[in-house]
Amino acid sequence: MSQDEYREMLPGHAEFRLPTPAPAQRVNGRRPIPEEPVGQQSAPRPNGQSANDALDVWDRRVAKGLAFLRRRLAGTYEVDDFGFDPELAETLFHPMLKVLYRDWFRTEVLGIENVPLEGGGLVVGNHSGTIALDALMLTVAMHDKHPRRRHLRLLGADLVFRVPVMSELARAAGATVACNPDAERLMTDNQLVGVFPEGFKGIGKRFADRYKLQRFGRGGFVSAALRTGTPIIPVAIVGAEEIYPILADLKPLARLLGVPYFPVTPTFPLLGPLGLVPLPSKWLIQFCPPIPTKHLTEFADDPLVVYNLADQVRETIQATLHELLEKRPDPFGP
């Protein structure tokens, strides 16, 4: 081989020079992201995701959000006869409430296996907390922990549905008026219905009476369960009593405003709007074993049977509250 032939084979020779890459073309006014060289990967992030993985996650979130807005604007979403909007509840309401449920109240849920996998049921809980956050946290706990991610259809007081904006939001979240016909219709339709028989007596009681169940009324919830033959699931909620401890009730001011009570707490009304921030108490929610009612459907109008069953539910919740308080010695612990 001659020296000229050898020289022509060298990489520096003009014929063997690597071509200069053409500048990246812009697509829709944007320069494309350059591909990573073979054998190289993006630097791992602290959570183990690469940069491209993080971009994919955000792309999916943006696409999901845009699809949600498109459906809302086009009206292509389902709402039942009571105004319940499952998509809005799962996409908007539950994620917002989960901040309180998971991070602020550090909620622990026990006995979720006692909630039926399917079919109707009546979930009966103790009520407290000045503002009915316990009802909202119970709906989140049900959807978050239940294997079938079931929705809890709350029965609300008439006052809730007399306030214009609150009424629409409550119905979209799955609530309806606390009356037997609505409760029976929902349970017949295989829905889980949530009721708090203490009503305003429960959420408006003073801190000195915390975790002492008030009277359950006339037991209308029991009659609804008996007529439909659905099980009653007692549930005990610990933690709500400490979020707004009521020290006094200004009854004259409450009558003037047309509300059941006007609470005075350590932070409200002294701190104004800041007093509405709940204290970060530790929450425990326990679902108790269901009480069957199919064998008692013929006694739905028997006052003695209704009273005894309501008393059984009340005693079960009260006993469970005492057990949970022993498990949670520090109201504001981890």
Characterization of this structure:
By secondary structure, this protein is an alpha/beta fold. Helices cover 38% and strands 10% of the residues. The protein is built from ten helices and nine strands. It has helices at 3-8, 51-74, 86-104, 133-145, 164-173, 180-188, 200-203, 220-228, 251-257, 303-327; strands at residues 108-110, 121-125, 152-156, 176-177, 192-195, 232-238, 248-249, 263-264, 284-287. The strands form two sheets. It has a seven-stranded mixed beta sheet with strand order 1-9-6-2-5-3-4, with helices on both faces. Helix 3 (86-104) crosses helix 4 and helix 8 (220-228) crosses helix 10. It is globular and about 65 Å long. The N and C termini lie far apart (82 Å).
Distance between the termini: 82 Å
Please give the count of helices: 10
User: Could you say which overall geometry the principal axes of the C-alpha atoms support?
Assistant: globular
Instruction: Report the biggest beta sheet as strand number plus sense, adding barrel if it closes.
Output: 7 strands, mixed
Radius of gyration: 29 Å
* Percentage of residues in strands: 5-15%
Mean pLDDT: 86
The percent range for helix content is: 25-40%
Q: What is the string of SSEs from the N terminus onward?
A: HHHEEHEHEHEHHEEHEEH
